[in-house]
């Protein structure tokens, strides 16, 4: 079972950059987990003569952070230096050959990590999902191995998103069973919640089966999408701690609304992880936001609406506290639940009231600075009983296990 803290760790790691006509911001937060097992990569301008190419990825580790950390430092080099990838770049880059080179890089690093683990007598049993994008001047290559997810917003809607690799997926289940395993409680052998990952070598030791035929496969799915200069808006890469509480369209709508009030991509990324925490995510959370020139721009009307909303919420919090009067000082959970029962206009789409938790909390603490509330991180009850599938659809929450 996964271990959790008494209170979430909300300190964040942030980074941002720009180049190749791209801008990016990222945020990662430990949250409720006792250990931070996520990692990420963000590189604009690649080696081996790929100055106009860029690479971004999120790695969601489990059973330790070793594999995720190693991949964030070395996966890109395994991809760009292998002979399959290099041969694809001769003359005019061939899309299918680039895709094949990316797959080769994944298989190579997985075998390399296995060798390292065996030399250490198998002490490392950690694993990691990986979701990334390699952006060339002409194409976007989405890369997915596991249940982290990436998506592309184009022309104001979700144009593409990767498919999560879950043990219950028919093709994944067939491979697992052919390798002598089983799928119980939606998990490989009743234990691991993902069917593809790097590392996890305890699930990759079936004799007579190749690396992509094991209980857990290191093979990524790679999708090539031709770029659309006028319509491409942004890419979101995130671990399942984000997708557990936000559907694809919800997150895209939320990001669009945030880009209309700020061009600070670190700030937008921080708002994503904070909102997901307040929506009830109990996992580590990491998100990389990559913006194209066609991304939404700051709008004076949107900025005005945002300021009016914040002012309204501040006034309502004060009214709720005063209305309590002789009944005593209400706790923050009572304030949040009261606001949740009201129809509040112009809340950020996708984020809704949870995305304004920091505003509400700030005015509450200003008015009642002495109040110590151990339930301060409790999320709204209307958002605690659901999660979202790989298709971004809501489903009932199952029993929570660690990976």
TrEMBL record:
Subunit field text: Monomer. Interacts with SMAD2; the interaction dephosphorylates SMAD2 in its C-terminal SXS motif resulting in disruption of the SMAD2/SMAD4 complex, SMAD2 nuclear export and termination of the TGF-beta-mediated signaling. Interacts with SMAD2; the interaction dephosphorylates SMAD2 in its C-terminal SXS motif resulting in disruption of the SMAD2/SMAD4 complex, SMAD2 nuclear export and termination of the TGF-beta-mediated signaling. Interacts with the phosphorylated form of IKBKB/IKKB.
Enzyme superclass (EC): hydrolase
Catalytic activity: O-phospho-L-threonyl-[protein] + H2O = L-threonyl-[protein] + phosphate
Family to which the UniProt record says this protein belongs: Belongs to the PP2C family.
Gene Ontology annotations for the cellular component aspect, listed alphabetically: cytosol; membrane; nucleus
EC number: 3.1.3.16
Role summary: Enzyme with a broad specificity. Negatively regulates TGF-beta signaling through dephosphorylating SMAD2 and SMAD3, resulting in their dissociation from SMAD4, nuclear export of the SMADs and termination of the TGF-beta-mediated signaling. Dephosphorylates PRKAA1 and PRKAA2. Plays an important role in the termination of TNF-alpha-mediated NF-kappa-B activation through dephosphorylating and inactivating IKBKB/IKKB.
Bilayer topology annotation: Lipid-anchor
Cofactors (names): Mg(2+); Mn(2+)
UniProt protein name: Protein phosphatase 1A
């Amino acid at each position: 079972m996964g271990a959790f803290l008494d209170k979430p760790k909300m300190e964040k790691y942030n980074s941002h950059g720009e180049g190749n006509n791209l801008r990016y911001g990222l945020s990662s937060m430990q949250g409720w987990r006792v250990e931070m097992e996520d990692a990420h990569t963000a590189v604009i301008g690649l080696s081996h003569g790929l100055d106009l190419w860029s690479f971004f990825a999120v790695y969601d580790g489990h059973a330790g952070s070793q594999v995720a950390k190693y991949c964030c430092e070395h996966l890109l080099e395994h991809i760009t230096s292998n002979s399959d990838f290099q041969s694809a770049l001769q003359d005019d880059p061939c899309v299918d050959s680039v895709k094949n080179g990316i797959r080769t890089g994944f298989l190579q690093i997985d075998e390399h990590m296995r060798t390292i683990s065996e030399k250490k007598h198998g002490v490392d049993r950690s694993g990691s999902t990986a979701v990334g994008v390699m952006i060339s001047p002409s194409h976007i290559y989405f890369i997915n191995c596991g249940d982290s997810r990436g998506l592309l917003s184009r022309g104001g809607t979700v144009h593409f998103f990767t498919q999560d690799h879950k043990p219950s997926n028919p093709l994944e289940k067939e491979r697992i069973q052919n390798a002598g395993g089983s799928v119980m409680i939606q998990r490989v052998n009743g234990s691991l919640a993902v069917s593809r990952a790097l590392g996890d070598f305890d699930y990759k030791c079936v004799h007579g089966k190749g690396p992509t035929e094991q209980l857990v496969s290191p093979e990524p799915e790679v999708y090539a999408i031709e770029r659309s200069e006028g319509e491409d808006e942004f890419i979101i890469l995130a671990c399942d701690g984000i997708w557990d509480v936000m559907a694809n369209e919800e997150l895209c709508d939320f990001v669009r609304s945030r880009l209309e009030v700020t061009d600070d991509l670190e700030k937008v990324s921080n708002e994503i992880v904070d909102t997901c925490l307040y929506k009830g995510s109990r996992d580590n959370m990491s998100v990389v936001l990559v913006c194209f020139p066609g991304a939404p721009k700051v709008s004076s009307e949107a900025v005005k609406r945002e300021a009016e909303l914040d002012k309204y919420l501040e006034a309502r919090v004060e009214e709720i506290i005063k209305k309590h009067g002789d009944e005593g000082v209400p706790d923050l959970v009572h304030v949040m639940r009261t606001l949740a029962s009201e129809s509040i206009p112009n809340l950020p789409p996708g984020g809704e009231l949870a995305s304004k938790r920091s505003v509400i909390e700030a005015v509450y603490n200003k008015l009642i600075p002495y109040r110590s509330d151990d339930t301060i991180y409790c999320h709204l009850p209307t958002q605690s009983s659901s999660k979202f599938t790989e298709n971004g659809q809501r489903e009932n929450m199952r029993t929570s296990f660690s990976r």
